[in-house]
Each structure stands twice: as C-alpha cells, then as structure tokens.
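Hi support team,

I submitted a single chain yesterday and got back a structure, but I'm not sure I'm reading the token output correctly. Could someone confirm the output below corresponds to the sequence I sent? I've pasted both exactly as they appear in my results page.

Thanks,
R.
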Amino acid sequence: MDGTLLLDVHHPDADAARSFLLCFAELEKSPDHFHTYRVTPLSLWNAAAAGLASADIIQQLLRVSRYEVPQSILRMIQDAMDRYGILELRLEDGHLVLASRDEWVLKEVARHKSIAPLIRAFRSDLEVEVPLLSRGTIKVELTRLGYPVRDLAGYAPGEPLRFALNETNPDGTAFCLREYQINAADAFHQKGGLSGGSGVLTLPCGAGKTLIGLRVMELLQTSTLILAANITAARQWIRECLTRTTLSEEEVAEYSGEFKDTAPVTVATYQILSYHARGRDEFPHLSLLASRNWGLIIYDEVHLLPAPMFRVTAEIQARRRLGLTATLVREDGKEDEVFSLIGPKKYDAPWRELEAQGWIASAVCTEVRVELSAEERRVYAFASVREKVRVAAEASAKETAVMEILAAHAGEPTLVIGQYLEQLERLAERLGAPLITGSMRSRQRDALYTDFREGRVRVLVVSKVANFSIDLPDASVAVQVSGAFGSRQEEAQRLGRIMRPKAANAPAHFYTVVAKDTKDQEFAHSRQRFLAEQGYDYRIADLEELQGRRVILS
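Hi R., thanks for writing in. Yes, this is the structure output for that exact sequence:
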C-alpha cells in the first residue's frame, strides 16, 4: 500500500471528511467524483507535532471509511506518528544532548554515516552529546532517516525590545486581533515553553499573516529579523510595523539593494541575502544574520525559502524561527527541510472556514478553455515539449478571452497575471493598462500599486512579481493567462491577491484561461490541486460561451 485514500465528494459528509483528511494527508488528485489523498511520513509528523494522536486518527478513519481500512495503512499511521519524538534535543549544562526513550533507536541512528561524525560522546544508553552548531544539521539528517526530532533545546532570548500593538487603526477606530490570529500566535509561542518558538503557520492570503507575525513579536519582546519575498513585501512589513505598533522609525530598518541599515527590527529580502557574485560561492550579505543578537527570525512566504537560506538556517537553530505561508507546497519537494529547520506546522486555518466567517472573500473559480488557431496547432504539433508549453501558454485566443472577461466585469478592480512578458505586453497595450514587471523600479511599481488601491487605475497587468505579499485589498477579479508550469503554490498565491473581503460580501472572481487539449490544460489541472484541497471547485467554460452569454460570469 502506498498510503492512498479516496474521498467520494458526493457523499453528504464529504466536507467533514475533507477537513479530517487534511489533518494528516495530502491531496494529490481532484477529478469530479473522487479526490485522491496520500498519507506520507511528513504529513503524519506534522499531525503528531500539532498534538494529534495516532489512536485518534485511526479511530476516526475507521469510523468514516466506507470499506475496511487495510492494516498496512493503519500501521503506517501508527508507526510514523509514534516515531515523532522518540528522539529529542535538549540543552543540559551548556551541552546539546540527543536523547531517546529507546536505546536501540539511538544506537541505530548513532552508527549511521551521516550521524556518527556528529556524536561527541555517549552519556548513557539513552543520551549522546552533539555539537551545538550541528543542531540544524542533525535534525535534517534524522528526518531523512525517518526519525524526526522534537527540539526542546530552547532559544537565545535576543536583545530585548519593548513595544506593543496599537489599540486603534490608523483611522482612529478601535483595533483588536481576530480570534484565529490570536490562536495562531499562541500556537507558535506556546506560553514561552520549550515546545514553542519554531514552526510554520499556514493561513490564506488576506487573513492577516503580518498581524500574526507582529503579535508573535509582541509576545516575545525581542529583536527581530524579518525576511520577505520581495522589496514591495518588505516595505509593507515596515509600514505595518510603524502603523500597527508603538515601534519608532529608529527601531525599524530596511536591508535591501538600496539600503543597508539595521535596527532592532530589520526587514530584508530573500534575494539580497542569497545574492552572490557569479562564479563565487560567498554570500556577502548573509553576515546580516549574525550582525545582531536576534531573538526571532520571521520567514514570510516560507515556501519560497531559497537553497542558500536552508544552509544558513541550519546554523542558527538557537534563534526562534517563525514561518508564514498560505501553503507549504514546494515544487522542489523540500518540505521536509522546512519541517526540520523552520519547524513543524503549528497552525492551519482552512480557507473555506475563514470564508464562511466572513474574514476572506468567497471566490468563484472559472477555467476558460480556448482553441489554438490552425497555425498554432501546426506549430504545436511539431514543437519540442518545452516549445509546446510556450505555444499553448501564449495562444492568441487567450487575448480575446481576457477582453470578454473584462467586459463582463467592467469597472471592477482587476489583475491580469501571466508568466511571459511578450504576452503581457500585448495584453497591456490592448487593455490600455499599466504593466508591472520585475525589471520596473520599485518606486514606480509602488506608485502603480497605490494608484490601483486608490481607484485611479482599475486594471493592472502584472508578471509573476505580483504573486507574493502584495496588499491590494480592493482587487476583486484576477485573470491568469499563463503560469509556472503546474505550480500549486503559485495558484494559491494568485487567488490570494483577491481574497480580501468585499463590500456587501460580494464574491471575488478568479479566472484561468487555458489552451484546450494541450500541456497548458495539463498544467492547469495540476495547479488547481491546492485549491481543490481547500474545497474550491472550478467551473469550466469555453470561449464561445463567454461570447454568447456572459451570465456564466456572475
């Protein structure tokens, strides 16, 4: 058995079963009738780290299953979850100790070629001493061996920093955190105990992850380094620090290509920290991580963590680490390194649950299928696989579909999002709309975002630079014309751009324009898996339906 579970989506209890499965399994396929989930060691370790017991999951699985559950699945759940915490890291008298409740497990892993060089001495049959600076390395290696470690070694307090969240909004109205935001911060902090201080919080875009980060900072009262996906996101963090808290401008700094300042709260980008000259292995800006006695490092959009940052994060395990993301999906499969080095998933807020409570907008998702032209079909037939992707992604009929969609949503704040610049340039010209790309200066980009927020611009054409952490609260329509192959996390991030609640509880509309019967359609199916996992359905429409009766868009 490979851990596969099938969910009958037409069963009256399907929604409840979906919520249960997401606690310990990962969605893999979502056709019309049966969704396929897979139970993996990592999904089970996250469940165990969240406090779930294997016995409870097994009991519930037996209760909801239509057929007898194979014993191999039940044993897999029990064995994987019971392995979490067999090994623990503790700090004793200034020494890092790897302890086990099973002496034979400890002896087995201590003999492994990746662990043996890290063993300094056996203290007893149940404890070995390991180097302090190997804390991250040993966690990664033991996770790969199937023995995820419960890290109870604690964290350096960092430089003290006294501040508080403001009790009013910038407009003077009263401000307080939402219940789920408080719960998420508390799940990470865990009252300052040894089991708190590292982990990942997953919440939908628009749910206020920045505010949760600020609440964690308030709980810890310590100097903080914040790492953001891009400079626009970094400056949004700075604005939120200054408007939502009592922090002064002298206490918050930007470390970027433009500025190299540090302060008790410093905001930098992954790009600047992972920069290195071509042909050289040195990363000159990584010294920022050691420049102050940080008590907390916040990884915004943690699923984007670049490879060099994994290496450095392995060396700073004595700092508290908070990962924030809408989805832990990584297309490179390094979710296990996020688990080992940042920490397990500590809180997961279901999208549809927050939608039902009115904290994020309801979303209508529509896949619009277009045909390749005769010439495009000829070129596609003889193209290489890579060329097929580009031909399908830039199908000329997609431009017609975009025009039809925008005509149906005339006047609504709309984002047209894509991967290929030539395609976006053509669309921007036809729409008479500004085009934002990664090569645009950040000040010009920010000015266009401001014009969009304030209603002077109603349509923006944006490249993948707008996938992450862009605060455009009034955007209500997104049209995706091309993307990064089958990236599920990109699909989630793009939908997230329009998830802020709307006036009168109006829905947001998310369109994916796809070339029919091509690689484009295959990738679209893969991209939609994450949203299906969250309970969203895609309606399917052909271009002819858009042109004939726009009622399907409402």
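A quick pointer for reading it: The chain has a mean pLDDT of 87. Let us know if anything else looks off.

Best,
Support desk
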